[in-house]
Design goal:
Order of helices and strands: HEEHHHHHHH
Distance between the termini: 16 Å
InterPro entries: Thia_Transptr_ThiT
Shape: globular
Helix content: over 70%
Number of helices: 8
Number of strands: 2
Strand order of the largest sheet: 1-2
Radius of gyration: 17 Å
Structural class: mainly alpha
CATH topology: Arp2/3 complex 21 kDa subunit ARPC3
CATH class: Mainly Alpha
Pfam family, one: Thia_YuaJ
Protein name: Thiamine transporter
Keywords: Membrane, Transmembrane, Transmembrane helix
Length: about 190
């Protein structure tokens, strides 16, 4: 195994663990009953921008595994299939942010910092929507029974999961926007 491969696998493990630590030990700022302003997906986005989609999806998948094996997912699993969707598939899909890596790399080579920022923020939106699309689907199929009386399961899932996606996506966008000079340094170091 060459040095680059070892570095890749090490970073996947470290950043998945960092996402788990942020998830467990940082209290999200609550903006309402379902809106949590949290940047716990940020480590998965960073792996995706640095190494690409496959690495980002691997880190997200590993974060989902950590959720399950540590018991953090215990209250969120109703059935085996639902648990698989919401913890393995949804978390892995955060890594789709890596589809922006080629555009980020081109903009970095041309020293177009505005485009680097725009492409990373677009990646955050892609990864957030991909993750929460799965939560939305699982929400109305598996969690719809908890919708308030008279409210459709689809609307309930849209409100709950859409609010979470908005809060987490905006938090990650804000951090990336504020730390953009550091992002370039991070992406350069391999």
């Amino acid at each position: 195994m060459n040095r680059s491969r070892i570095q890749l696998l090490t970073e996947i493990a470290i950043f998945a663990t960092l996402a788990m630590i942020l998830d467990v030990f940082t209290e999200p700022m609550k903006l309402g009953p379902w809106i949590s302003f949290s940047f716990k997906m940020l480590p998965i986005f960073l792996v995706s921008f640095r190494w690409g989609t496959k690495a980002g999806m691997s880190a997200g998948f590993l974060w989902g595994i950590l959720q399950v094996v540590t018991g953090e997912a215990a209250g969120g699993i109703l059935t085996l299939f639902q648990g698989f969707l919401e913890y393995f598939v949804a978390f892995a899909l955060i890594g789709l942010a890596g589809v922006m890596k080629p555009a980020i790399d081109r903009a970095r080579q041309r020293k177009e910092t505005g485009k680097v920022l725009l492409n990373t923020l677009t990646g955050v939106v892609i990864g957030t929507i991909a993750r929460y699309a799965i939560h939305f689907i699982a929400g109305f199929i598996f969690w719809g029974q908890y919708a308030p009386e008279g409210q459709s399961a689809v609307y309930y899932s849209f409100v709950v999961n859409g609010s979470s996606a908005l809060g987490e996506g905006l938090a990650c966008i804000l951090v990336i926007w504020l730390a953009q000079p550091l992002l370039s340094v991070f992406l350069d170091k391999k």
